[in-house]
Amino acid sequence: MKNIHLICAARPNFMKIAPLYKAMKATSDLNPVIVHTGQHYSYEMSQAFFDDLGLPEPDHHLDVGSGTHAFQTGETMIAYEELCEKSRADLVVVVGDVNATAACTMAAKKLLLPVAHLEAGLRSLDRTMPEEINRIVTDSISDWHWTPSADADENLIKENIRPDQIRMVGNIMIDSLVMMKHAIDMAAAWQKYLLDPKEYGVLTLHRPVNVDDAATLARLLEAVAGAGVPMIFPVHPRTRKVLDTLPKTLLKSFILTDPLSYVQFISLVSEAKFVVTDSGGIQEETTYLNIPCHTLRETTERPITVTMGTNRLVKPETLAQSLQNPKTGSVPPLWDGNTASRVIDHIREILA
Ligand code: UD1
User: Fold this and answer.
1) In 10 A of CB 188, how many CB atoms?
2) pLDDT of 306-340, one tens digit each?
3) Best of 44, 66, 138 for a ligand 1 pocket test (most atoms within 8 Å of beta carbon)
């Protein structure tokens, strides 16, 4: 049995490792070992996803928790290095672009362990985003790059990654969506909020540039409040801290909730009229579900959601116009629910 470390840290990682874990568990040659670094630790941001996605308790918990970027990155490197000395990995799989993605890649590579990055090659070209730094660091030293779309392959080639290190495997988030489709369809989460299908919007905001400054957040909320339909707004803990300082009148058009579980959230998105977000993953999920998405950011590391999908980048002053002209789109190649099996095929080639 080959031991494959699956590194997860924060909310968007859990739906990326779940399909891989399940597909590997069904083999007789690959042993998936879940390593949770603990960047997200509250029930809503972590365990709720393990419960929904049917993941077992992590094999290893590094309990790193919150802190500055350097603190999180450094503590994760120290704790993961210690673990690697004790628990031998034949391959380390990192996903996405959170602090732990870069930290575990650095720790593993310095121990000469092979590392594969799932969701490699995405670039916003905006180095003020902490995630962009994590993407560049991770891709520059990983051995294998599993990409979701052709634009990611092109970015890696431009950065002198060898073509034989790159494999387009598709979008792993769509595997989770397909895997959970029945539960999502059964959830009908809008009923709980007394909403009618296609007559409400969903809002998420958590990027530092949008939520860390109260005046900026207030301006965004004013723009979104003009949408004219009820807006359900599951609030990220980072956003909550600033939201609590804003006048309550600004919030009257929103149905505020704590962070939602995966199934509840995707159920709400599936029947929404539209989504307004600054998330990365939600741009992809809305493209797959054919729900118009208005992304409150100046750049996206997922341009295929704009060129092929339902996504549009907007500013507060262009949101109203964008809402009036919702986009339709199509689903990019290999966003089909079979990414985990393509990853497993490649792992067998690598380890052969
Ligand atoms: C992180 C990722 C981002 C991802 C996002 C999704 C990085 C650089 N950023 O941002 O790419 O899109 O997760 O959620 O890795 N907190 C809680 N409970 C928790 C976790 C965090 O209350 O379970 C609080 C923390 O104390 C902190 C804030 O939320 O003050 C932000 O958490 P942090 O992990 O620093 O980054 P995110 O903004 O969540």
Assistant:
1) 14
2) 999 999 999 999 999 999 999 999 999 999 999 99
3) 66
